[in-house]
Amino acid sequence: MKPMVVLVSVDSNSVLLGARHFVNYLKELIERFSLQDTVDILETGTMGVYTQGIMMAVFPDDVYYSVRSVDDVEKIVTEHLLKGRPVLSLEIPKDKLKLTVEREKVTAETRIVLRNVGSIDPKNIDEYIARNGYFALHKVLFEMKPQEVLNCVKASGLRGRGGAGFPTGLKWEFTAKVQADQKYVICNADEGEPGTFKDRLIMEGDPHSVVESMIICGYAVGATKGYIYIRGEYYGSVENIQKAIKDAYEYGLLGKNIMGSGFSFDLTVRLGAGAYICGEETALLESIEGKAGRPRLKPPYPPTNGLFNKPTVINNVETFVNVPPIILNGPEWFKSFGTAGSPGTKVFSLVGNVVRRGIVEVPMGTTVRDLIYRFGGGLVGGKELYMVQTGGTAGSFIGVDKLDVPLDYDSFKNHGVSIGSGVILAMSEGTCPVDVALNTMQFFEHESCGKCTPCREGTRLAVQILEKISKGQGKFEDLETLKQIAYVTQEASLCGLGQSINVPLLSILENFKEDFIKHIGSISCPHGVCKFVKAQKPKMKV
Hints:
Layout: E1 4-9, H1 12-16, H2 19-32, E2 39-44, E3 49-50, E4 54-59, E5 63-67, H3 70-83, H4 125-130, H5 135-143, H6 146-156, H7 168-177, E6 184-189, H8 198-205, H9 207-221, E7 225-231, H10 235-250, E8 266-272, H11 281-288, E9 312-316, H12 317-321, H13 323-329, H14 331-335, E10 345-352, E11 357-363, H15 368-375, E12 385-390, E13 396-398, H16 411-415, E14 423-428, H17 433-447, H18 453-470, H19 476-492, H20 496-500, H21 502-511, H22 513-521
Parallel strand pairs: 1-2, 6-7, 6-9, 7-8, 10-14
Antiparallel strand pairs: 1-4, 3-11, 4-5, 10-11, 12-13, 12-14
Helix pairs in contact: 2-3, 5-9, 5-13, 6-7, 6-9, 8-9, 8-10, 9-10, 17-18, 18-19, 19-21
């Protein structure tokens, strides 16, 4: 290892901001100033939340920079790397970095899932192993029986991080109890929820953690084959996961007789075509089987009748990646984070009008206010917050009166604030709830697979009504009709897509009722967003 290391974040968000160009220029400057023997350049995943620019870190000085241009890169090389003087104008203050575990404060970022993201070269298996990578797998294969693994995961209280919050250990146990000649483990990395990108950045920054977790699951439930279902647009995730699988095979961590334990497990990648519906587990199974991605009628459920009608465990990326630390540190350690009913941490995607966008991992029970103002840095331009959507497009819309609600799996039942897939979409003053509701329902209408009538026709009708209201042509009875659509789709739809429409639709109608009433009783949009259209009087026939 050379005396100085420069870590550069090259996750997909950073690449869009010019990370590759900056890395190439950095390498060019290192050669120009003959620093090859003293400086190493390592590419890594996301380092968390961003302003406008990519993040570079210089070690062992422990200095983080926000880089926005090649001039910034040159300053870092000529001042810091050559002369040992940090560039203060580019440095990110320590209080803006949330990369360390601070157990004393419940709102400090606590990295369990993101433990390696932004700290290692994700394409180097040796770096993963150097940070206790595959240690949990070794412990499981040589020190624990399958039932002991199941008991450990159950005792931890780990719940699915995809939105439903179903107990992970219980799901695994359902599959373990079924006698079958073949069982499967599937990682749902489709992540189609708008605004959600945490799983993508986990796979880009720490792909081996996904691989290790799935092997452990396979051992626990008696499965010998696994699939990682990734949406095709996630190019960086696909590349890094495939590299991780290839290296794991070469190191004897996948395939036959893993580590000489007698246990065998094979893993492969399947690409989705970007359909939101394929995030629903049975539609995902249909897609892997080569069929159209449409949901199955349940029961039976995947743990007993899944892929090719065989017992199948399906969890998302974030859920799986919690498993190795639980195995190594024990369930009580994991339960020391979060709340009694929702142990552990949650990775949130901060999007919208926040100053610092990106992902942040905090203990369950952290408030919406802390996520927006402490980790997100408040709103761009110092504007006032008007509304927030929590949990993704299928999540709840709330006003500023609910910012102090602690986010966990009971927050929706107790306060009407959903945790969902972990999106925090902050919207400032000037946002029109009617326009937001229309945009949301247009998304569901577009993504509905059309298999069941309540979802197919309910979303279409909701869009038509909201279009009328947004044009100033709505009626007060339209609001009741929208509520009826929400109730019917929830009760009668075949899968989670249609069943979840009621959450955003009812919450926005309830929490922003006055905005809808003003649209119906006024001559213009109170926020100046929607374009009102006067109704045309029918022409008289002459």
